[in-house]
Amino acid sequence: MELAPFSLIEPLAGGALIGLAAGLLRLGTGHIAGISGILRLGVRGPDRGWQMAFLGGLLLAGLVAAAQAGPRLAAGLEKASIPALILGGLLVGIGTGLGNGCTSGHGICGLARLSKRSLAAVAVFMALAFLTVLVRRMGGWL
Amino acid sequence: MRIAIALVSGLLFGLGLAISGMASPDKVIGFLDLTGRWDPSLAFVMGGGLAVAAPFYWLAARRGTALCGDALGEPGQSAIDARLLGGSALFGIGWGIVGLCPGPALLNLAVQPLSAGIFCAAMLAGLLFSRRD
Questions:
Q1: Predicted pLDDT at A23
Q2: Which of B5, B97, B133 to mutate to probe the A interface, most A CBs <10 Å?
Q3: Cα–Cα distance between A92 and A102 in angstroms, integer?
């Protein structure tokens, strides 16, 4: 296996901030920082206040980051075709709805509370994501 | 208080995503591409996140309640069933197609509004369609 030049500090520091955010929300309010669930309940939930505040903070971070880094923050997104964006978005939405969580809810929060369900979910979505990139590399579709 | 904590948490979460590289599909696909030139960077995002989140979770569990006095939210289910595994499989495929998971997709609305907007609209449709609650 050949390794690309990789970074250590940014991923670790960014990951630590994500962990701090998730930990703060859990210890402070008891809630789980799973983005797919927060988005779903923020749009259509019985008590939407905290979810909307969290989403507001997330969107605000986007504005700050965009002002600092510009479009390169999302480097590669400009290459995605419209069919790929629609299909990818639909699958991410349906999948996280059925599976009850995404990279944050299962990957960070679920694993932090040693949930076997989240461990199974993470193993499956990581495996399928690796496989999808492999198939796309071979087939060149989308 | 709850609202303020949620706002700060969302802000920190988003800044963390931006700093980590998770918002870049190039970076994510590079991490998922084991047979190409593999970029292991993003493994450290989960590592760093877990290392910091775990003590907070442990402390919350030990206290039994959140600092604001509320009960700790627990996911309703505990079974590893077809719905969990099938849903996670679909999510993995979608993540692999574009290189965006839900947090970065929302963050990128401010960065590349058109592409991120199409992705987020489809994601929200899928999310609301797949659940009744």
A1: 97
A2: B97
A3: 8
Measured between beta carbons, which residues in chain A are less than 8 angstroms from residue B72? Answer: 26, 30
A12: closest CA of chain B, how far (Å) = 5
Q: How far is A22 from chain B (nearest CA, A)?
A: 6
Beta-bridge partner residues of A3? B38
Instruction: Please tell me what DSSP assigns to residue B16.
Output: H
Do the beta carbons of residue A10 and residue A74 sit within 8 Å?
Answer: no
Can you give the residue ranges of every domain in chain A? 9-139
CB B72 within 8 A of CB A30: yes
Q: Count how many pairs of residues, chain A against chain B, have C-beta atoms within 8 Å.
A: 510
Take residue A84 and report the two structure tokens written for it.
């790929």
pTM exceeds cut of 0.90: yes
The pair of structure tokens assigned to A40 is 């779903």
Find the mean pLDDT for residues B33-39.
86
Side-chain half-sphere of A38: how many Cα atoms within 13 Å? 30
ipTM of the modeled complex? 0.95
State both tokens at B74. 């627990």
